[in-house]
Write a structure and sequence with these properties.
Blueprint: H1 8-21, H2 26-33, H3 37-50, H4 69-85, H5 93-104, H6 110-119, H7 136-144
Length: 145
């Protein structure tokens, strides 16, 4: 089973268990796979709790989100409103950052802010902005000529 496993750390765990199954002690098995004996004891404990799944590499949970899902939805609505109410130009990342900081008291990094926008399906790449005094009817008439 250790040979077919893709992850090196999981292969190590399976190999340590093979040594234990052959009658070696925890410390001998640990020495053979070059880890601390305490590590092997933790692996055995996980195996007893969850079986083979306890030996598999667990995915890290990562850092907690700074902004909850409800607030994230409210931020997205506020961004849409901000863009609609803007007379000309674009809503910049800096504008969104200031709004989130002022309204929610959360100081996001650029990466966190753009990940939030990506999750919301909002793109930071925008079309060309329209001047507030642009003559749309005149432009359409010129297009038809």
């Amino acid at each position: 089973m250790a040979r077919s496993e893709g992850s090196a750390s999981e292969r190590k765990r399976f190999l340590a268990f093979a040594h234990i199954k052959d009658g070696r002690s925890f410390s001998e098995a640990a020495r053979m796979v070059r880890v601390q004996p305490r590590t092997v004891i933790v692996w055995v404990k996980n195996f007893r709790k969850r079986g083979l799944e306890g030996l598999r590499q667990q995915r890290g949970s990562g850092a907690k989100r700074l902004i909850c899902e409800e607030a994230e939805k409210m931020v997205c609505k506020a961004i849409d409103e901000m863009q609609k109410n803007r007379p000309g130009g674009r809503v910049r990342g800096r504008d969104i950052w200031e709004m989130v900081n002022k309204n929610y008291g959360i100081s996001l990094s650029n990466g966190s802010l753009y990940r939030l926008l990506h999750r919301a399906g909002l793109s930071w790449i925008t079309g060309r902005s329209q001047h507030p005094k642009a003559d749309f009817e005149g432009r359409e008439i010129l297009k038809k000529l």
